[in-house]
Amino acid sequence: MIIKPKIRGFICTNAHPVGCAANVQQQIDYVKSQGELTDAPKNVLVIGCSTGYGLASRIVSAFGGGAKTLGVCFEKPPTERKTGTAGWYNTAGFHAKAEAAGLYAKTLNGDAFSDELKQQTIETLKADMGKVDLVIYSLASPRRTDPKTGETFKSTLKPVGEAYTTKTYDTDKDKVHDISLEPASQEEIDHTIKVMGGEDWELWLEALDQADLLADGCKTTAYTYVGKELTWPIYGQATIGKAKEDLDRAAAEIVKTKASKNVQAYVSSLKALVTQASSAIPVMPLYISLIYKVMKEEGTHQGCIEQIYDLFTDKLIQAAPEVDEMGRLYMNDKETNDATQAKIKALWDQVTQDNFHELSDYAGYHHEFLKLFGFDVSGVDYDADVEPLADW
Ligand code: NAD
Fold first, then answer.
1. DSSP class of residue 380?
2. Residue tagged active-site, from 225, 235, 266, 287
3. What string of DSSP letters covers 127-150?
């Protein structure tokens, strides 16, 4: 099969197996070039392990720290006629490399919100790995079925309080235009918290604890984005931001209820970058295209792997990591500091349909977007006939 990108709106509906494997390899090469992590966790569970920040966390754990990793993801397998999702191929690529390096890796594909998948995880840990010393929670999902009630909740991306009009970039139509978003109802806010808040993170830790699978001093982190004025109305102070605030509550609750195991739970605040999750958020493609421009000029640009490598070395594996005033591991200062934000704001105010490509790094954004699906990866022959079937 010859595979070319099929882009529909903010998503690419197919993926390239060879490109995805090459992407994973590039991330492994980066981690190896940085040298081994000292005092790294050795038994790591990554919930949301197949793309974006979760995949990077798994690669840093395995190839930086030599950890055994158990991953959980929700991906579509390929058929003879249709490619699998990028996360499927990333996982196949990761497994091939881990096996070649003699690193234990297993991945469970299914709904992480369900009791069944938690049970499967526990059985796999008991059989293969034993207690975990790090649990990464990196899910990004538009919906969640509550395992207790069976009710399905959907998340909403809307402002809270009042309507908000701002600029956005439509990646499909190559158009900068105004967008007006009506405020969310209380029900929409509550449902978004149900999906993207801390409840499921707590359920995971509780299930692991009940099964006696948390090592003494086990660390756990869930990822958040804390932006600034430009993104607050649609992110930080919007429905998704309300859900992310709930992670702070959950972290405190996990520390309290798992005190006998000395569990350290952190919310880690990471920089904005192109992933499948962020490209679906209105405003973010425009904002990210502008920050890429500014941060590349400042020499501070990072992708998932560089950001997560720094999170591990600077904070997560430190005995007593420095936290911000909210108790979070704050990693996006290079994006949110006042000087950088002022430059981004100046570009934001000027940007129009006519000057968008000149003022922004949309070329960089688009390249990264294609790379998420295994396209536009250097060294890959996209005219070659490739086998779509892959497994792990
Ligand atoms: P992503 O879309 O690349 O990854 C999401 C992961 O969740 C995938 O592995 C997917 O398979 C898995 N997943 C989704 N639903 C699932 C389900 N029901 N069961 C099992 N697995 C499921 O997203 P990302 O951008 O890497 O986001 C990960 C976390 O990082 C999110 O909490 C996000 O808010 C946060 N974050 C993202 C950014 C950003 O700019 N992308 C910035 C800061 C924080």
1. -
2. 235
3. III-SEEEEEE----SEEE-TTT-
Question: What pLDDT, on a 0 to 100 scale, did the predictor assign at position 344?
Answer: 96
| Strands 264-269 and 214-224, sheet pairing | parallel
Give pLDDT < 50 ranges for the chain: none
Question: Looking at residue 218, what is its pLDDT?
Answer: 98
Closest protein CA for atom 18 of ligand 1 = 111
Looking at ligand 1, which atom is closest to the CA of residue 75? 11
Residue 72 bridge partners (DSSP): 47, 108
Q: What is the pLDDT of residue 9?
A: 83
Any domain includes 227: yes
Strands of the sheet containing 264-269, edge to edge, are 105-109, 68-73, 43-47, 132-137, 214-224, 264-269, 329-330
pLDDT at 300: 97
Is residue 286, in this structure, part of any structural domain at all? yes
Residue 75 lies in a domain: yes
pLDDT confidence of residue 390: 96
Determine the structural domain holding residue 253 and report its residue range: 7-372
| Cα angle value 57/59/61 (rounded, 5°) | 70
138 in ligand 1 pocket by Cβ < 6 Å?
yes
Q: What is the CA radius of gyration of the chain?
A: 20
Residue 307 is predicted with a pLDDT of: 97
pLDDT of residue 47: 98
Q: Which pLDDT belongs to residue 283?
A: 87
Judge if the beta carbon of residue 53 lies within 6 A of ligand 1. Answer: yes
Residue 186 has a pLDDT of 98
Catalytic residue check, 235: yes
pLDDT, position 171: 82
pLDDT value of position 85: 98
* Ligand 1 mutation pick, 20, 49, 53, 308, max ligand atoms within 8 A of CB: 53
Domain at 206, CATH number: 3.40.50.720
C-beta atoms surrounding 341 within 10 Å = 18
Give the pLDDT of residue 278: 87
The total number of structural domains in the chain stands at 1
What's the 138 CA to ligand 1 centre distance in angstroms? 5
Answer yes or no: is 380 within a domain.
no
C-beta of residue 278 within 8 angstroms of C-beta of residue 288: yes
